[in-house]
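Justification of resources, computational component.

The compute hours requested in this renewal are based largely on the per-chain cost of generating structure records like the one below. Each record pairs the submitted sequence with a full structure-token output. That output is archived, and it is also reused by downstream analysis tasks.
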Amino acid sequence: MDARLQRRVQRYGWDLASNDYDPLWEEQLAPARTSVLAFASLAPGERVLDLACGTGLVTLNAARSVGARGTVLGTDLSGQMIEVARQRAFEQQLANVTFQRMDAETLDLPDATFDVVLCALGLMYLPNPQHAVREWLRVLKPGGRVAIVVWGKRANCGWAPVFPIVDAEVETDVCPLFFSLGEPDTLAQLCNDAGFESVQQQRIATILNYADADEACDAAFVGGPVALAWSRFDTVARSRARARYKHAIEPWRRSVGYRIPGEFVVVAGRRRK
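The structure output for this chain reads:
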């Protein structure tokens, strides 16, 4: 897919997802958020950049960790996601956090500005992850840290059939690189190649719990590029896609609900001092 088209799909897809995504995914993705913040080891007074921040779930936790003497900037390609995040910050009375709509591959930010860069489940969506990670290195101060989490191997994510099911209804792949960074050592090597040092990684198995097949389908079709494709499906295409997805997740059905396996890969590294 052309990179400009991919960015447009991401932007407008996440705009569509801004109100529905968190109710279906906030709890499911908690282990990813917890792990990336643990790897980051934020300290009071630090300056933090949270990329592809969505509705600010990681961003706001980071703001609490760095305290009043620290600052956090959350950025996302989706203006609607940013608006939700700003409202949450206002409601939680967090004055040390700001949000901007910005492409995580091309940062309109000066060199050597941040102590920590975070990216929770955003790098898989970018057209050029290699360029993105080099940009993230650029905006870190010497000795600054990066912490990234992505989805793991396709084979370890039982919800993965959603992509070919959607692709069968549209002309182009909605997320062509999604699972490539989850392959063994791929993300760690990407960070090494960008110039990060002391790179460490961890794979985390998780379970996505759904009350029934309809809830599982709602979650599968609500996010980002999938959401944009879904918004253009007619009733027949939606019915066909949901039926195919229900069939695909049948192995994970239990007596009560569904327990669908998933996997995260977390990587951290440092910029040379």
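Residues 3-157+174-209+262-270 form a domain with the Rossmann fold fold (CATH 3.40.50.150). The mean pLDDT is 95.
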